[in-house]
Amino acid sequence: MIEILLGVLIGVILGTLSGIIPGVHANTLAGILLSLQVTLLALLGPLALAGAMFAALITHTFVDAIPSTFLGIPDADTSLAVLPAHALCLEGNGEEAVRIAALGSACAMVIAVPLSVLCFLLLPALQPYFDWWIGILLIASIGYMIVTSKAPGWALGIFVVSGLLGVFSLHYAFLSWHTLAGGSAILMPLLTGLFGISVLLTSSQAKMPEQYFRGIRMEDRTIVKCSMLGTAAGVAVGWLPGLSTASANGVLASVIGYEKDRRAYILATNAANTANAFIGLAALFALSRMRNGVMVALSELPMPSMSELTVIGVLAACAAYVITVWLSKSAFRLNGIDVGLLNRAVIAFIVILCLIFTGPFGALILLLAIVLGLVPHLVNVPRMYCMGAIMIPVILYSFGIAWV
User: Fold this and answer.
1) What region does 163 belong to: left with phi over 0, alpha with psi -120 to 50, or beta?
2) Please, what is the angle between helix 220-239 and helix 262-287, to 10°?
3) What is the per-residue pLDDT across 276-303, written as a single tens digit (0 to 9) for each?
4) In a domain, 333, yes or no
5) Ramachandran assignment for 167, one of left (phi > 0), alpha (psi -120 to 50 degrees), beta (any other)
6) What is this structure's pTM?
């Protein structure tokens, strides 16, 4: 029990730090802990060390709503959700956006934990039938979004070009530095350029509006519906090979639409993010497949049981919810801040971080992604179609087309 609590404490602290600092992911922390495993195993024990990694991942899925909302910088798992969250912040509803995100993650934890047990017991036998249908699902989703767009030509063009950029980035990812963030580091400049810096460059340069919390303005029925939709998407991407939460965000956009109901979309996408973490753990134990950097790190350690790590994840989720809500109450401190100055400071920080993590190649990808990310604003098309950067590589992977 002491090791479990120690793992939760360390993981919650690390996950809070990675969640607050834009551009830093729990995968980064897992890589650092893994590099120190000889010392940490002797000090903490295998259960506490593995638990700290998983608790950090769960905590990160809650707390990363804060920089997404107030700074407009996306995490790799919530790149599309940053758009409605930051928009609510600029309307003075930033605390509400963060609380909605935390609520979605909490609801997902309640639903996903029992589902992870069912997936562990029932789905391995059906795995061969799943792989091909991933690409079909994504093509159907994006096809529907493009056909129903007000400018199908621009939507298709942006989707295809962003997909080519995604394939190029991942194919030549070995050219980037992997100092701390691991092989997925190239996603940071790619998605930050498409959904972060390009948004900040075109956002308002006025003062930050006063932040008020007027309660979560969503019906209970909508909360339940979006929690279930988001969790279902998280289960899919957590279990099926090649998918990520960013892919789930794209699919959810075709069902909910982040411009039509921003609050519902924020809740659903954050539910998917947290559900993905729990289901990814089940996939690790059932299939020995690693869905993210934390699972790769866990596979290199003496593995505790799935039940022990699940308990740690639940305790971390409870703590992370309280921390996220508490931090959101500080939103009023942003009242009157010069948004233009804040944006420039955040852009400078992210550029430096990309250079540290990915080197000159990452800087090139960041520049290309920023240029492409500005196109939807110029032609008045939703930035959602830039998700081709993730969806096209996944579609190719599901059809067995080698590009890496």
Assistant:
1) alpha
2) 30
3) 889 989 988 887 776 667 887 788 888 8
4) yes
5) alpha
6) 0.80
